[in-house]
Specification:
Shape: globular
Number of helices: 11
Oligomer: single chain
Number of strands: 13
Order of helices and strands: EHEEEHEHEHEHHEHHEEHEHEHE
Radius of gyration: 19 Å
Number of domains: 2
Largest sheet: 6 strands, mixed
CATH topology of the largest domain: Hypothetical Protein Tm841, Chain: A,domain 3
Length: 285
Amino acid sequence: MAAIFCDTDCELWYTHARELNLEVIRMPYIIDGEEKLCDLGEETDTHDFYTKMRNGASASTAGLNQQIYYDTFEPFFKRGEDILYIAFSSKLSGTFEYLDLAIAQLRKEYPNVKFRKFDTLNICMGAGLLVYMAAKYCREHGDDIDATYAYLEKNVKKIGIYFVVDDMKYLARGGRISPAKAKIGNLMNIKPVLTVEDGKLDVCSKQNGTKKAYKYMLDVFASTYENIDNAPVVIVDADCGDVADAFEEKVREINPTVTIWRQPIGPVIGAHAGPGTLGLIFTRK
């Protein structure tokens, strides 16, 4: 069996990762000065995490060093297994520089091992949906990682991901926007609809108020959704389940036949987006 790796920045729920026998690289986050590792929801108390953020706790993220990457992959190189790592966007973190150094070292030590890394150019379940689809494809096609890589290339641009944050100050803290823009946006009740474009966070629309921002996401879903290999539609929320419940009803009104997954936004993504964030991820035309 080929070894398929993902990282916790893809936020694929731990039960799905286990179902597909995925190897998971756990990414770190810091809350209130304590570093922890994300676990795809297995034991993380996201309500507690977001309560701490609401109460003023500082939250941030970190990358991994070369040695951790080496130690993670070396047993698989040693066993001579084919390895496919489906990663979150390389344009959102410097951690992949250390991955590249580790893999270069391992390739020298184990030159006959096939290792491939695919950059999803996405984050959160935008990456996770690709991981899920590709892992299923791989397991159903004889664990052929080259064919799976081609499958990923075919579908990488067919993932729609849209977020609305409740308070832009968290984006400012993470350096995603300037503090001045965050303050003005909050004062004027401007709600940017965020997406990931070419691997980077981008604003695809600015709406006056949360209701209009949510409607924008629903309109985009209605006009661009396409069923690809029966992939689910995913609704994620940062401790705002009631809002997500109402939003799910609207999605079902648009397309009653879709399978919908619901899950919380994990702490690595949540550290930048903040509590109250709502996201919609789906396959598109």
